[in-house]
Specification:
Blueprint: H1 3-16, E1 20-21, H2 46-49, E2 59-67, E3 83-92, H3 97-112, E4 119-124, H4 136-148, E5 154-159, H5 161-167, E6 173-178, H6 180-183, E7 184-185, E8 199-209, H7 217-220, E9 232-245, E10 251-264, H8 265-272, H9 285-295, H10 303-321, H11 330-348, H12 356-366, H13 381-406, H14 413-423, H15 427-436, H16 445-464, H17 477-496, E11 503-508, E12 513-518, H18 525-540, E13 545-551, H19 552-558, E14 572-579, E15 584-589, E16 604-613, E17 616-623
Parallel strand pairs: 1-2, 4-6, 5-6
Antiparallel strand pairs: 2-3, 3-10, 4-8, 7-8, 8-9, 9-10, 11-12, 12-17, 13-14, 14-15, 16-17
Length: 624
């Protein structure tokens, strides 16, 4: 089966079960500051899973293009992609576990034709601490479904992936219980980080077995459904939104339970071909075939490069077809990164100018089924991305010219940094080009490069010192995280305690943060808890953090940026915005540095609240 056939079969099957097909959402969602891109099929439907009534009823289905840049470094193996299509169905207070499990099993075995002997499933082992029982209900439904297919499915507790890596699986075992790291869904991740008030619950994941010969025991340990390696591949996940977290941190069962189901189109299509390599399916293989032709090289000998190019160009096409332009900010920068990484890998394969003109039409043909309401800019994709290709290739040519000028005596890390900093010539490409031309690199080139980078950061820090009173001990990773968390805490104080609160001083190290602020009373325990919960909610929402330079008057009067030293600021200053630009969570005059999105901060914990001086209180906090 090709991907288009699998997609259509799924949508038709779900409609035959009473579901209404809804249109997919754009990859860039409007009025959603929590993430750069649509990263799951449920994301656009979250308001309805939280209780809002949907105009099309209680049974919905769709096929949603998604993009997750957090997987970008994994692209190159047989199954990871940054862009993928999620087949989804939802029950909004309608059917629950029995109908969902049976429907998905029927679709896989009857509609797609997968061998039920190769299907394995996982369920939630329960949490004694929070009084949530083992999901025996789902496990027993699966056991009955397998029995009706002529399979005696044994149930076993694995608990953690590490246990499975040591234990493996045994004859007849097919249904596995894992802990909340593997089989619990909430917007915060595991049970401990489930947000107060949110629906959440156990999930049941479905895996396809490509055979014992695909396992690599030496590298990954024994194979089991939640293991790494090529034997088992997850092809679908059924989330049973059964609980809600209460104000006291415990959980209660919902009166109105939901099902949130998602399955990877690419992975199910690969399973239908019994191929553990998703780059063999119809959405990706034509791109690989074209790359083989353009480079004169075989896919088997260049799998990582060709997979990265195929994946990244597919993502770049979808983003550009939805109207996004390459830039140096937020989503535009992500698009630029995809294109430039693809071009670099193409250069490694010896593919020269204008290869996008050869590849993009193939991708366009694969997405003819997506509606014009989503791909509003189809006709401009080639022109937009070709200009980006030419501009980057010009940068590359300048860099190579300078590299050739320097190569006579070899290259130091300082020179590699200069090539990147001055000419925009990426370090990765400099090193590759040096290897290609047999140019000697100094023994300590990486340390020298890092030292030059640190020196530049120190110069930037010194230049802004005294202009912005950030109170940072250094510009390391943890200090940067604490600096961003300080902005969130100040915003929470202004929102929950008093809009008149201002920063009166701060001190940030790699181990903790300290914020001084004006308030006329000692903060009570419930106030501190609300502050902590609000900051953690903003962290879990993974809000974007962006900055730009503005005239002082515009920053103060139009943007309404928060600042404590307006009389000392220069006429040009930097403003950091956290969250939606039009309705920001935080907007402050600051010299940085900050993280790019709040989700990397971890868990915010207030350790102490005390008096600093008359009318000034102090909060000390850590990130766990």
């Amino acid at each position: 089966m090709n991907a288009s056939e699998v997609r259509q079969k799924y949508l038709d099957f779900m409609k035959s079960k009473g579901h209404v097909q809804v249109a997919p959402a754009p990859l860039v969602l409007e009025n959603d500051p929590t993430t750069l891109f649509t990263g799951s099929g449920m994301q656009p439907l979250l308001p309805y899973l939280l209780g809002k009534a949907h105009e099309d009823g209680t049974r919905l289905t769709d096929s949603q293009p998604c993009l997750r840049l957090q997987d970008i470094e994994d692209v190159g193996d047989p199954r990871h992609t940054t862009v993928f299509e999620m087949l989804g169905n939802w029950s909004l207070g309608d059917y629950f576990k029995e109908e969902q499990i049976r429907n998905f099993f029927t679709f896989l075995t009857k509609e797609v034709g997968l061998n039920p002997e190769k299907i394995y499933v996982t369920c939630f082992i329960g949490s004694e601490k929070y009084g949530i029982p083992r999901d025996d209900e789902a496990a027993k439904i699966w056991q009955q479904v397998f029995k009706e297919a002529g399979i005696d499915a044994k149930i076993v507790e694995i608990n953690t992936a590490e246990n499975g890596d040591k234990r493996g699986i045994r004859s007849g075992e097919r249904i596995f219980f894992y802990n909340d790291k593997e089989n619990w869904w909430s917007r915060g991740g595991g049970i401990e980080t489930t947000p107060i008030g949110d629906p959440c619950g156990p999930d049941s994941e479905v895996f396809y077995d490509f055979g014992e010969d695909k396992q690599d025991v030496e590298k990954y340990g024994q194979s089991h459904p939640a293991s790494d390696g090529a034997r088992f591949m997850e092809i679908g996940n059924q989330v049973f939104m059964q609980y809600r977290r209460k104000e006291d941190g415990t959980f209660e069962e919902l009166d109105k339970k939901n099902v949130d189901f998602g399955a990877g189109l690419e992975r199910i299509t690969a399973a239908s071909m019994d191929s553990y390599d998703v780059f063999r399916i119809s959405l990706l293989k034509p791109i690989v075939d074209k790359l083989e032709k353009l480079s004169g090289k075989a896919y088997e000998d260049n799998t990582a490069e060709m997979r990265i190019i195929a994946d990244h160009l597919r993502g770049a096409y979808l983003l550009t077809a939805q109207g996004l332009k390459p830039s140096n900010k937020q989503q535009g920068y992500a698009l630029r990164r995809l294109i430039r990484r693809a071009i670099l890998k193409a250069l490694n394969l010896g593919i020269e100018d204008n290869f996008l003109a050869e590849v993009l039409p193939l991708i366009s043909e694969n997405y003819q089924d997506l509606p014009d309401s989503i791909l509003t800019n189809r006709d401009d994709v080639l022109d937009t991305l070709s200009r980006e290709e030419q501009a980057f290739r010009h940068t590359i040519r300048r860099g190579i010219k300078e590299l050739n000028r320097l190569k006579e005596h070899g290259l130091t890390g300082k020179e590699l940094f200069m090539l990147q900093d001055t000419y925009g010539f990426p370090l990765e490409l400099s090193v590759e080009e040096a290897k290609r031309q047999d140019i000697t690199l100094s023994d300590d080139w990486q340390k020298e490069f890092d030292a030059a980078l640190s020196e530049q950061r120190e110069r930037s820090k010194t230049a802004s010192k005294g202009m912005f009173k950030g109170g940072l001990e250094d510009h390391g990773e943890m200090s940067t995280k604490y600096h961003t968390a300080t902005h969130l805490l100040l915003a929470a104080l202004q929102q929950l305690i008093s809009p008149d609160i201002c920063q009166k001083g701060s001190n940030i190290t790699a181990d903790r943060m300290r914020l001084d602020f004006n308030v006329d009373h000692k903060l009570e325990k419930d106030e501190l808890q609300k502050l902590e919960d609000q900051v953690n909610a903003w962290i879990q929402a993974d809000l974007p953090v962006v900055h730009d330079e503005y005239d002082k008057s515009y920053a103060r009067d139009t943007l309404k940026a928060h600042g404590s030293f307006w009389d000392k600021y220069p006429e040009k200053l930097t403003v950091y915005t956290i969250g939606d630009f039009d309705k920001p969570t935080s907007r402050e005059v600051c010299g940085g540095p900050h993280v790019e999105h709040t989700g990397v901060l971890g868990h915010f914990k207030i350790k102490k609240e005390e008096s600093s001086s008359a009318g000034i209180r102090r909060i000390k906090a850590i990130l766990e």
